[in-house]
Amino acid sequence: MRSIHVEEITQVIQEMCVETNYYLDPHIKKAFYQSVKREESPLGKEILTSLIENADIAANYQIPICQDTGMVVVFCEIGQEVHFTGGYLEKAIHKGVRQGYAEGYLRKSVVSDPILRKNTQDNTPAVIHYQIIPGDQVHITLSPKGFGSENMSNIYMLAPSEGIAGIKKVVIQTVEKAGANACPPMIVGVGLGGTFEKAAILSKKALLRSVGTKSSLPHIAALEEELLNTINQLGIGPQGLGGITTALGVHIETYPTHIAGLPVAINMSCHVTRHAKRTL
Amino acid sequence: MPVYLETPLTKEKLKTLQVGDQVLLSGTIYTARDAAHKRLVTQIKNKETLPISLTNEIIYYMGPSPARPNQVIGSAGPTTSYRMDAYTPLLLEQGLLGMIGKGKRSEAVRMSIQKHQSIYFAAIGGAGALLSHRIKSAEMIAYKDLATEAIRKLVVEDFPIIVAIDIKGNDIYRDSKKKYRKLELFSKK
Ligand code: SF4
């Protein structure tokens, strides 16, 4: 048994809330530079250049990259040999969020009830996913998610007969419908398989991969590439104002599924896709 | 070349602006997003006096992140506009002349903009740090209990925006995509 004090968890959660909101993922920045060169729309080029400038201002002047500093999603992979001390793990996570959003001057965007809609004033609670893994380590991945793009997400329960053609169709339709609302250039997370909720979680996990990385499964990597090419031919472009840079990446995660089903979840994300990971 | 535009807006000034024009805006604008729109519209329907006059004004759909002690405002980019669509025609009737946001508007809003000879601008979504630097002062002036969603009076300088719907009702989101579209998918039945 390895003991981990929950205060350590609070600490890393707090740090990741702040750093993800101030420092743009270098992979995204690299993708901006590559896209500026390729983009055919003059306005699109200017927008991409502005996004690079925005990232620099954010880091240099300590202003969040985007004012929607998101609702915090946390993935906890906990080694089964780990024992937490000093309090309740979930409370420690929320405390980290609370401190990070206060000390980092981040926007509090969470309401306590979907109908009554009263702001909780500290951006808690986070949405937390736990997984028990072998060993005595804890991996924590944190991703503050903005809702301009989150609202454009979708899930479909396709029939297996619809196959790859069906998957492509619903992904492209979702991207088309999202358009400017998802703040293109976007990153598209796709969850294939599992059950209804598993597909949705996979699509969120897909967004945690750095842009530019491919699936390790050859047939899925090929589908990712094909979808990305198709999406970039839609004409939506940076900010939906026309162009060939509509998405920076399409990431697909898969899981076994039922003989009768083909769940497809599409989690839309923007050019401010934020994520960080720590291992304790 | 960007067009320099100063507030207050007038219908005359708007006549010179066309969809796709890049504009650098200077002057006073107001922020309002979901919750503030709901209140404004409720007050109008109840025939109450509004906390701000809308005549010839510009509303920016934005809820900033908190300012640090040495900053005017925090990150300050646009939020998605369609959520305000249900409220917009009534505000345009009250004399509102301009809006700044991101994303496509409903057909009802597009028509209302054309009818009232007003304008809709797009700001770059997710460029909140850059846009923050073009805001010279910010003051919370109404619905303070709404915190980030309160109405703020902003003074902006060379604030970069793009004409998205002009007084003729031309819509950049409808039209510009066609220009760079390389394929036709799923032909409409
Ligand atoms: S979709 Fe992303 S970039 Fe756009 S406003 Fe929301 S968090 Fe910011």
Q: What are the main properties of this structure?
A:
heterodimer; A: 280 residues; alpha/beta; 2 domains; four-stranded mixed β-sheet; 8 helices; globular; B: 189 residues; fumarase; 7 strands; 24% helix; binds iron/sulfur cluster
Describe the structure.
Chain A has helices at about 5-20, 25-40, 40-60, 90-105, 145-150, 165-180, 195-205, 220-230, and strands at about 1-5, 70-80, 80-85, 125-135, 140-145, 155-160, 185-195, 245-255, 260-270, 275-280. Chain A is globular. With about 280 residues, chain A is of the alpha/beta class. The mean pLDDT of chain A is about 95. The longest helix of chain A is centred in the first third of the chain and has 20 residues, at about 40-60. In chain B, strands 2-3-4-5-7 form a five-stranded mixed β-barrel. Helices cover about 25% and strands about 25% of the residues of chain B. The model of chain B has no long low-confidence stretch (mean pLDDT about 95). Chain B has about 190 residues and is of the alpha/beta class. Chain B has one domain (about 5-185): Alpha-Beta Barrel (fumarase), CATH 3.20.130. Chain B starts with a strand and ends in a 9-residue tail after the last helix. The longest helix of chain B is centred in the N-terminal third of the chain and has 12 residues, at about 35-45. At the A-B interface, α3 and α6 of A face α5, β7 and α6 of B. Iron/sulfur cluster sits at the interface of chains A and B.
